[in-house]
Amino acid sequence: MKRFTKTENSWMFYDWGNSAYSIIITTAVFPLFYKAAATKAGVTAVDSTAYLGYTIAIFTFILAMIGPILGTIADYQGLKKKFFSFFFFLGIFSTGLLAFIPSDNWLLLLICYTFAALGSTGANVFYDAFLTDVTTDDRMNRVSSRGYGLGYIGSTIPFIISIAIIILAQNGVLPISASIASKIAFVITALWWGLFAIPMFKNVHQHHYIERESKIISNSFKRLGKTFKEIKKYRAVFLFLVAYFFYIDGVGTIISMSTAYGSDLGIGTTDLLIILFVTQVVAGPFAILYGRLADKFTGKKMLYVGIVVYIIVCIYAYFLETTLDFWILAMLVATSQGGIQALSRSYFAKLVPKKNANEFFGFYNIFGKFASIMGPLLVGVTAQITGKSNMGVFSLVILFIIGIIVLAFVPDPKKVSVEAIK
């Protein structure tokens, strides 16, 4: 494979910057900060975990509703970057704002977190769609996987700085509280994310698009309606989305709620942060490896491998008791979380018409986000009913099994011919 182009590298380095949000806000520091705030306010551990799950369900529902509509409008020439920019700046601003919310106001923290998550995940809808503009079908597995790999590797830098500040504060080395240290981590995240988005803004442009016309909004709704009516023409796309709906549900739920789950098991904050750091380090090269193996064995076979690993993760999670068990679980997740996400993105990008990439990635978003509603709700409700968080994680097994069965019926992208929707 030839060297990566300037455009490909610029696109991939956005992952390097944005992934700091994923590890610090979604997975590590914010959940612990929020849990501490909730505990201080008298909220039980099980309830605070459930409320976090409900919050994730709310913002994912919002994005699921608007994703296809905005994506369809963004297919017009010059609009993809504008929509990307709006959500990007919403995410940056809200992430920084987390640092200024009182550390005992757990409800306001969740509200601000909702806007930060809307910005981050909303920008990612259009970022993912840019994959069709920055590279060709035969390079997508490598480019998408390397993007995830760089994201995991790059995010370790602000993560190390953040956990170092938090640990030093907890041990009295720095003359600040652990709460202030966490807030500094939120500022670091916003700055890191913004800095490495600059190449994306400078060098990545929309090459596949629909020509501008009058009545853009009304015509966008017409195209969206036409897609629904002619869904049979896109059977491969639809089948893939159904499979994706189920297996990515489990993936997203485990990523977004793993820290809260570990906290419920009694694992200390320092141990959790170190485990998450090592997970990022391990996940980077494995994501790149998935891309290389996909070129050799096909993307579908590597997706099978990733799903099977996650089934093992869910079963093992049920029996977790010690910090060592959580270490083993985290390393299993690290081997496949980046690979399964990267190959899902590139596999889908190969199936859709390039000129309608935003619209179809809007559907990719709606299926992924609706899945993200079901998973956290399942974990939250199960945890409250049984009083055991591990029961919720174990129940995710069925989602992975359904996903792998449906995926078996999705054809090879090379055998699929798609036409643009006019």
TrEMBL record:
Origin: domain of life: Bacteria
UniProt membrane topology term: Multi-pass membrane protein
TM region positions: 20-38, 50-71, 83-101, 107-127, 148-168, 180-201, 236-260, 272-290, 302-320, 326-348, 360-385, 391-410
A GO CC term attached to the entry: plasma membrane
Subcellular location: Cell membrane
Protein name: MFS transporter
Example of a GO MF term: transmembrane transporter activity
Alphabetically ordered keywords of this record: Membrane, Transmembrane, Transmembrane helix, Transport
Major facilitator superfamily (MFS) profile domain segment(s): 236-422
Residues forming coiled coils: none
